[in-house]
Amino acid sequence: MPRVNLEGSSSIVTGGASGIGEAAARQLAAAGSKVVIADLNEEKGAKVAAEIGGVFVKCDVTKTEDADAAVEAAVAMGPLRACVNSAGLGAPGRTIDRDNNPHDLGRFAFVINVNLIGTFNVLSRAAAAMAKQEPMDADGSRGAIVNLASCAAFDGQIGQAAYSASKGGVVGMTLPIARDLSAVGIRVNTVAPGLIDTPIYGEGEHAEQFKAHLGQSVLFPKRLGQGEELAFAIMDCITNPYMNAEVIRLDGGIRMPPK
């Protein structure tokens, strides 16, 4: 059985304007797919889309109308065969602060809404479109979805209750959604990154020193991971026709300490 051929297909990548999402979008485009960059950052998103021959759609992943717009843009370019949910954020805060005040519930809910509910929103709208398409092989395959979780889903640190809960939810829904979508030939997998070199760490000498320090806690190799390396795993989840219902930690072997 050959790898999934993405020539002439379309794909959606949320959070595709930078970091892991951008790396995945570039690899999807290199494989012959027309990519929708679904992101809130118009300047960066439009630039990436132009460079890879795709389109940019401004997208708040928590809004069904935005998700539908991204799906519509993808289907207009070709059969939708891949959806990568990379959009996400963090809002650190302890369950109670140093003065014993409780964590702000709205802040907690915001992280859950974007990282977990936003992921489900986009994947469900994409799956609905994929299910209406003709199968692309004798197995009846119609597409593949890859969600981004985090190693914080398994060993979240102090102050990561909201982020860990959101990413733990992404991990937890991988199998039931894969089971749901098996009836229409759509595979679902999750990649859980460790410490990855993305724009979140900033730029300049101080940022580079900080990243080098963080990298020493990785088992091997002792550095932060690269977005491209995460994209390799994402592409394997999409193009390996037997990869389904799996959660892959891609973290250089790190096990996060409490803080």
UniProtKB/TrEMBL annotation:
Report the Pfam families cross-referenced here. adh_short (PF00106)
Q: Which UniProt keywords apply?
A: Oxidoreductase
State which residue ranges cross the membrane.
none
Signal sequence, start to end: none
Q: Name one GO molecular function term.
A: oxidoreductase activity
The record's section on InterPro entries has: NAD(P)-bd_dom_sf, Sc_DH/Rdtase_CS, SDR_fam
Entry-linked PROSITE patterns: ADH_SHORT
Q: Per its UniProt record, what Gene3D superfamilies does this chain match?
A: NAD(P)-binding Rossmann-like Domain
Q: Does the keyword Oxidoreductase apply?
A: yes
- Which family is annotated? Belongs to the short-chain dehydrogenases/reductases (SDR) family.
Name assigned to this protein:
Short-chain dehydrogenase/reductase SDR
Question: Origin organism of this chain?
Answer: Aequoribacter fuscus
The record lists the lineage as: Bacteria, Pseudomonadati, Pseudomonadota, Gammaproteobacteria, Cellvibrionales
